[in-house]
Write a structure and sequence with these properties.
Blueprint (H helix, E strand, L loop, with lengths): L1 H20 L3 E6 L4 E10 L2 E6 L2 E5 L4 E5 L7 H7 L5 E4 L4 E3 L1 E7 L3 E7 L2 E6 L3 E5 L23 H15 L11 E5 L4 E8 L4 E7 L2 E2 L7 E3 L2 E2 L18 E5 L5 E2 L7 E2 L4 E7 L8 E10 L2
């Protein structure tokens, strides 16, 4: 009996040790501008629990401005959005979720609970790039052309009204201001934020050049119109359009086809204009499209 009890105790201690060891790393930016690279463990009533060396420490929740899992510089559109002061979450696929982080649980990946206008949503830490909580001292200023994606967690009408008002107030780029600027749309990235703010009903046309490769097969090529072999990708954003075709979306709304047509398209929503590749797996793609965007107001 004593041996069995001791063995059970060893298992419990081993499990506890594994739980302690399993904690994702993150950079915490404090409101005073300080940065802490650490292992993030928990968020509770006492604040954020982090691991410093071989012991845990606590930082008050209201002292933390940013939790960064991805590293690197924050994109301009995210900095511009944070200037408005409302908290939000940035996913690694580029989606933005309007809401505040309220709880952290689990080990690695952590479970992150976000309170949005439509209720609580849970995310894994490995699908989250950054958590914006507040402004901080020394925060970089946003370039005027940076956009503000219509976010999940807002109602459609609310997001459109706020987006239009913020776009006018911040002087974001419109397509008519960048007619001579070609934007690179890499094939190995499913969606690229152009940084251009459009309004619902605005007429926009696209002039596209370039060719991309959709897999390791050198013959698996696509122009803006889509696969040169006529193949489709079942799990692509637009499965009934050719694989590899140029597509678009406004904010996080439903994608639409662009292809190689020169006819102006009416924008379905107000928000940031994203361009993408109609493929179900972009990581193994190569090449890029060059897209010039024109306004037809």
């Amino acid at each position: 009996m004593r041996t069995r009890t001791a063995f059970a105790l060893v298992l419990v201690l081993a499990a506890a040790t594994a739980a302690i060891m399993a904690a994702p790393r993150a950079t915490l930016v404090l409101r005073n501008g300080d940065r802490i690279q650490t292992e993030l463990i928990d968020l509770g009533g006492v604040g954020f629990t982090i691991r410093s060396g071989d012991r845990n420490e606590t930082i008050a929740a209201n002292e933390v401005a940013l939790v960064d899992f991805a590293g690197g510089a924050q994109p301009q559109n995210e900095i511009a959005r944070m200037q408005d002061g409302a908290p939000f979450i940035v996913l690694r696929n580029g989606d933005i979720v309007a809401g505040r982080l309220t709880d952290i649980g689990g080990t690695d990946p952590l479970r992150l609970t976000v309170r949005t206008n439509s209720g609580n949503e849970d995310f894994n830490s490995n699908e989250v790039a950054r958590i914006f909580l507040a402004k901080w001292d020394g925060m970089p200023s946003a370039a005027p052309q940076s956009g503000n994606t219509t976010a999940r967690g807002q109602g459609r009408g609310q997001g459109q009204a706020q987006g239009q008002a913020q776009g006018q107030a911040q002087g974001r780029s419109r397509p008519g201001q960048v007619q001579s600027q070609a934007i690179s749309i890499p094939a190995n990235q499913c969606w690229t934020n152009t940084g251009i703010y459009v309004f619902a009903g605005q007429s926009v046309s696209f002039v596209v050049s370039g060719e991309i490769q959709l897999s390791s097969d050198p013959n698996d090529l696509a122009t803006a119109a889509g696969s040169k072999t006529g193949r489709y990708a079942r799990n692509a954003p637009l499965p009934n359009d050719l694989a590899g075709a140029l597509i678009g979306r406004v904010g996080n709304r439903r994608p639409f086809g662009i292809g190689d047509q020169r006819q102006a398209l009416s924008m379905p929503e107000a928000g940031d204009l994203w361009l993408g590749i109609n493929d179900d797996r972009c990581q193994d793609n190569s090449g890029e499209f060059r897209v010039t965007i024109n306004d037809h107001r």
